[in-house]
Amino acid sequence: MSETREIRTDYLARVEGEGAMLVRVRGGQLEEVQFKIFEPPRFFEALLRGRQFTEAPDITARICGICPIAYMASSAAAMEQVGGVELTPQLQALRRLIYCGEWIESHVLHVAMLHAPDFLGYDGAIELARDRRDLVELALRLKKLGNELMRVIGGREVHPVNFRVGGFYRAPTAAELSALVPELEWAREAGRELVRWTAGFDFPDYERDYAFVSLRHPGEYPIERGRIVSSTGLDISVDEYEEHFTETHVERSNALHSTLAGVGAYLVGPLARYALNYDELSDAAKEAAEEAGLGPVVRNPFRSIVVRAVETVYAADEALRIIAAYERPREPAVACVPRAGSGHGCTEAPRGICWHRYRIDGEGTILDAKIVPPTSQNQKTIEEDLVGVVEGSLDLGDAELAHRCEQTIRNYDPCISCATHFLRFSVERL
Amino acid sequence: MSAVATCPKLAVWKFSSCDGCQLSLLDCEDELLAIAEEIEIAYFPEATSGEIEGPYDVSLVEGSVTTAHDVGRIQEVRAQSALLVTIGACATAGGIQALRNFVDVGEWIPLVYASPEYVSTLETSTPIADHVPVDLELRGCPISKAQLVDTVSALLHGRRPRLATTSVCTECKARGTPCVMVAHGTPCLGPVTQAGCGAICPAYARGCYGCFGPMESPNVAALARQWRELGAGDDVMLRALRTFNANAPAFREASYDHE
Asked: Cα A155–B99–A46 angle (5° rounding)?
């Protein structure tokens, strides 16, 4: 009789939101892998119908408390496209600056508090702080700075209030931003410390030839604008997304699975941005990457934690560059008058591209909306990673295998609240 | 007696929400490690995979009830918790997802999901207090970090938390922000919204959008008259009331006057 084992972790911790996971192994063979998401649906695309186009940033921000700027920026960009409005360079820079704050806050939360404990054998950052208080304090100070950028520009850390279609309600003064410079200079160095620290972790030996998808914009590492490109040769405008990407609703999930035509599963987020835009990183970020031994492409998903740390260095560096060049715009926003039509917006949430489409009427009423968050795009790739990781790790004991699978999922910093809840994890060996 | 033995046990629970309010606890960067020394964080899956069994001295509950499963789960949370504190607009009023309470949610599912038969949800999104007794509510979308820290500290020291019940107007006065309605003609929900945020929106040159929900006995009808004079008619007031605290009774009832 073949070995019958059942391993169950009821609740995958240290992810944003809740979901479920099933790995079934029968007679030593991997039979099935499912990454379930059953966050109760909140129906944003439906509840947006009938709202004013100007309300989209505030409403869609509530999809995610960890990356509200991603939703605000993508929806605002879509509405600005409908209105035929372009932001002034100063307003564009300010939008990029607040987004740098979100990258720092979200990346450091994940790197130090949610993901690093996996590599070091702790339950969480508070437990880690008992032994490495210096590192946890460094991370908290970095995270606080990201939040401080969001607060100074946006009014508060979670669901900032100062963000609107066409720009902002109030542009910060140059003095308000300059006050952040000393801490940002510290952060650029502290970020490199984070890179060195994470680069020293023990990484499982696992690589895949991913189809990477990210934004790309000439002269800058992609954050708040760009064309959609891939490692498979795709290069399209944000408007053409639906011609190439398909969402499917599968039974086990309240999120929608995405695939790229002719390719299948694809990967969005830090690994993709990095591979497709390495040349656009700042010198400080490149130096940090080199010091960590990263080449221009990283294919080991477990090393995404190091890439997040490199992007943290970049975000601090970029914030410094923007602040040094900042001139307070005369008007905090450009007027955006509604006209009937469709608009598309896509920006790089910390976890990858966040794509929005809206159709509005001549009075500015939203007729329909489609929102594709990064985690649902990564869902299929996460499942494929699990297959690969489990197949290569069947010799591990039950607890180790369960832990390795959780770690594999956390590589993606999955935001299940975004994708839609409840990550329950179980491994069954029949 | 050892310090460990007297450490109160804290649990953090999530229902239907965006995670932003529990994130506010992790956003207390200056206080987090100090809090963790005085409180045992016994259950907080977003932050730690460690788990200590109940009962718990304090439970912070984020999110609203939107599934049959969660109707049962909140009963279990209540049974294990000496004090149950709801945090944020979802837990205290049903959140933005309570907009479904004003429509037939069956019509919404196919707008988002291609295979509606896979989706199970309740017709309504309801606050925690509709299901179990709640000891304390922290308002806001999201909650105020300052109120969270003060509340945790108050509970630790056995005093009453300092939670305002006045309107946002008092906070504008306190911080010296000129009234955006008077000075700029900007419609503002501040006069009917509970204080606690620190009056952020008017300080950033926009009207309050009511994310802390209705103050005690709000006079929405009087405010609506003022808004009309500023050119903001029924449709604008209706949308303003039906946003993040749409299902809070005072906003919900007032909203019917503007349909």
From this structure: 95
Query: Tell me, what's the ipTM?
Result: 0.95
In tens, the pLDDT along A46-73 reads 899 999 999 999 999 999 999 999 999 9
What superfamily would CATH give domain B9-156?
A: NADH:ubiquinone oxidoreductase-like, 20kDa subunit (3.40.50.700)
Of all residues in chain B, the one with the smallest CA distance to A63 is B18
For chain B, give every domain's residue range.
9-156, 168-258
Q: What is the pTM of this model?
A: 0.94
Write the DSSP symbol of residue B165: -
Average pLDDT of chain B, as a whole number = 92
Taking the CA of residue B115 and the nearest CA in chain A, the distance in Å comes to 6
Q: How confident is the model at residue A420 (pLDDT cuts 50, 70, 90)?
A: very low
Q: For the segment A357-393, what is each residue's pLDDT rounded down to a tens digit?
A: 999 999 999 999 999 999 889 988 998 998 899 888 8
Residue with tokens 């229902």: B15
Give the total number of structural domains in chain A: 1
Assigned token pair, A406: 């959780």
CA torsion sign for B27, B30, B32, B38 is negative
Q: Give tens-digit pLDDT for B116-160.
A: 655 667 889 999 999 999 999 999 999 999 999 999 999 888 899
A109 CB within 8 Å of a chain B CB: yes
Q: Which two tokens stand for residue B72?
A: 């049962």
HSE-CB of B103 using CA atoms within 13 angstroms:
16
Burial pattern A236-259, b for ≥16 Cβ within 10 A else e, equals eebbebeebbebebbeebbbbbbb
Cα separation of A47 and A286, whole Å? 43
The average pLDDT across B105-119 equals 67
Cβ partners under 8 Å of residue A356, min gap 6: A60, A71, A74, A75, A77, A78, A344, A345, A346, A369, A370, A371, A372
Q: Which residues are CB-contacts of A190 (< 8 A; sequence separation ≥ 6)?
A: A138, A141, A142
* Cα A380 from Cα B48, distance rounded (Å): 26
A13 pLDDT band, cuts 50/70/90, is low
Q: Nearest CA to CA, how far is B209 from chain A (Å)? A: 9
Q: How many CB pairs under 8 A join A and B?
A: 189
| CA distance to partner chain A, nearest, from residue B90 (Å) | 10
CB contact under 8 A, A161 and B96: no
Best B48, B104, B141, B175 member to test A by mutation, with max A CBs in 10 Å, is: B48
Nearest to B14 among A18, A59, A253 (CB): A18
- Residues B222-251 have pLDDT tens digits of 999 999 999 999 999 999 999 999 999 999
Q: What is the CATH number of the domain that holds A237?
A: 1.10.645.10
Residues A135 and B232: their CA atoms lie apart, in Å, by 52
pLDDT at B87 (0 to 100):
98
Count Cβ atoms below 10 Å from residue A60 Cβ, excluding itself.
27
Q: Residues 118 to 177 of A: which have CB under 8 A from any B CB?
A: 123-127, 129, 133, 136-137, 140-141, 143-144, 147, 155-159, 161-162, 164, 169-170
Mind giving me the DSSP string for B46-84? TTBS-B--S-EEEEEEESBB-SHHHHHHHHHHHHHEEEE
**Touching A: B residues 222-251, CB under 8 Å:** 239, 243-244
Domain enclosing residue A312, as ranges: 42-379
Of A14, A68, A126, the CB nearest to B41: A126
- Domain-embedded: residue A36: no
* Binding-face residues of A in 243-262 toward B, CB within 8 A: 247-251, 253-254, 256
Q: Is A119 exposed, middle or buried (0-12, 13-18, 19+ CB in 10 A)?
A: middle
